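Workshop exercise sheet. Pairs work together: one partner reads the sequence aloud, the other fills in the structure field after running the prediction. Swap roles for the next sheet.
Pair: D.N. / O.F.
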Amino acid sequence: MFKTALANLRAHKARMFLSSITVLLGVGFVAGTLIFTDSIRESFFTSFARTAKNVDAAVVPAKGVQVAADDRRDEDSFISPAALDAVRKLPDVASAEGRVLGPAPLLDPSGKVVKQSGHTGLGIAFPADKSLAYFDFSSGRAPVAANEVALDKITAEDKHYALGSQLTVVDHTDHRRAFTLVGVFDNGTDQTYQGQSVVGFDTATALDVTGRGGYDQIAVRAKSGVSQDKLVADLKDLPVLDGAGDKFYTGAQLTTELANKATGYTDSFGQVLLVFAIIAALVSALVIQNTFQILVAQRARELALLRCVGATRRQVFGSTLIEAFVFGLLASVAGFFAGIGLSKGLGLLLNSIGLNLPTDQLVIKPASALYAIGLGVLLTVGSALFPARAATRVAPIQALSAQLGETRVTRKAGRIRTGLGLVITAAGLGIGYLGMQNQSTESGFFTLTGGACVAFVGVLALGPVITAPIIRALGWLPGRLFGPTARLATANAGRNPRRVAATTAALTIGITLVTMFTVVTASIKDSATGSIKKHFPFDYQVVAEQNRAVPPELVAKLKGLPELSTVAAIYSGKTVLNGEKEQTSAIDPVGYHTLIEPVMKHGSISDVVPGTIALQDNQLGSLKTAVGESVTVTGKNGTSAALKVVATYADSGIGMPESVMAVPDFQKLVASPGPDTVTMLAKSDVTAAASRHAVEQAVGEDPLLSVNSVADYKKELSNSLDEILGLFTGMLGLAILIALIGIANTLSLSVLERTRESALLRALGLTKGQLRRMLLTEAMLMAVLGVAVGIALGGAFGWALVHMFVKATGGGTLTIPVPQLLLYVLAGALAGTLAAVVPARRAARQTVAAAITEA
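Structure field:
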């Protein structure tokens, strides 16, 4: 039977071609995801671990190792220069260098801040000991004088800076300082520190420019023969270092710490990508199962003959599985090699939305090949189990006398399927309803998602029952417009509902997810813009960059502009409430109810006066307080005060901090240099152009102040959400492509199955063109069926998710983007029609006599 199985594969390799593509694509996505994740993990590991190159010991402040630009510590969290001097005097120390990372905005020749991905730039210190340098120079050298700088490669190339160029950097006192570019360096995996330009100075200049009071890390190189453990023990004994608070690492420990934190970032990408890859693989499995069901039905007589000449049921069953195994193995191996190229495509796709992931390194591990190929073979063989079992359940005499490809479903089996499908669907809806009522967004999401998955399985079980009436409904209009050809196509599409349901199920999965993402994204977009309009009804904001403050003279100037009706300064910072670190804000009272209107749970935002505070309602439990009680607020300067809780507001995802206090209390407790934002409302009789021009004129050319309008924020939000939706759609696009190939595959096999029938229609007067149109219409109806059911399910699931979030957060808007969903229907109809072009042409090119003879 093994030889028989192989011979059958060789004899019918053309029939398996489209099916092999679906396995290839599914396995390719999985393999590409695994290879891509391994590659970026290796790149991150290598790049971040390079920071520990030649380091035998390191000391960092209590908050740990900083590995990224947003992994920031408090401004007073540093190691003092005196500690560095003490480390250098240890007898076992060959050299020690202090590392610095702080704000250092770079200006372009026009005087504007150089921004990479919206960030304004960082400054670092290059060590005098070159062996402790952690970046490689692509040209030039490290700065050694106070007027020299080095620049990261990406910024230098983007802004066309060359060695010898004059660069301007704004220091922490807002003074512009000129430097000469002497080196260009490659800072590894994240070429611009999460999007920021990186300017390198000598150590003393880095401290001076960034305003840091000390070092973010001390890197130590030991003398020959001194162990790393011995060096760390010596460091811990230094009185000038905090042996209990600071963290001490050997070089090996530092390498592991940096690499583990860095590679942790890659895991989230890999997990998300793997989810989409598994979806594509499952869609492939559905297509393969449907393919084997058709092939087994078409080979019923052949299998019956094998049974008549002595083959047992077990042998027939095994033969079918052997075919599936060999077919799956070959397609999976090809898919793995396709995944190597796909891994590069994934990198380009993710980098198109600004993730700045490395794409220059390719890591192929044996485990990735084993997992991907094993999954492909397992899904293929698993998909063939039920068709193989079905092949053994038909008696040889019955198979020899049956019409090829004809599938009978008893009324009893139909009732059982319907009842089971309804029960599963009802159970899923019930679980989903419980999730919708959940007040916790996290548990509600998982409950609702579980219910949606169960309900989806129920709908798939009902597929053969609901397919025929939906096909008839969809075929009514084409039948009226295009006559008998379209009516024949409708009849053909509905004659085998089980097969059509299985074919369109794969497409339904992809469209369901795309529709759900579309509904959720549109709802988030409208909810966010609505929340801004309702809760932050400003027209313009002046925002200070790099933790700077808006100068008080500018605030006064803005308040005096005749084009503006309301101007309020907003202060933001961190403080400690009842022992818990919290983000806090303060706003000029004039902005209450005009420029800020949170969703209040108790009291009013205007109740906040000196000596009082308003909290997010979900903070009451963690702070162990209640309305009417007091919380102890401790500031950075050591001062503390008891503030009475007079109001609470909802965490509605609208940008409100954990607490809001009065401006005098904020200035006393948080020790802020000033407001970081000024929010404004224009007069109603002033045009938008005139009011914005007045604000921009008042701000002038200060490079660290930016003017943004509410329209700018809405546009940025809309673009970000559109990019996310585009990314998700792109990820699901492969699953949809596999599903469309499944439609083409089903139609191709059906054409072979209906060869004699098509010949009879041609003999009765059906032209080649009409036969083509009939098959194209049949494919279009199947595609629209899958899209329509997917849109209905995805819209329902999306509505439920939005409803759950609205209920949990206390605000939001449900949006059904009807034009976009209709576009999906049209795109599905067109794609389904195009998928059937080749099978339809092949059927039309065959002569009547040849078709009858072949049949």
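Discussion prompt: The CA atoms of residues 599 and 650 lie 5 Å apart. What would you look at next?
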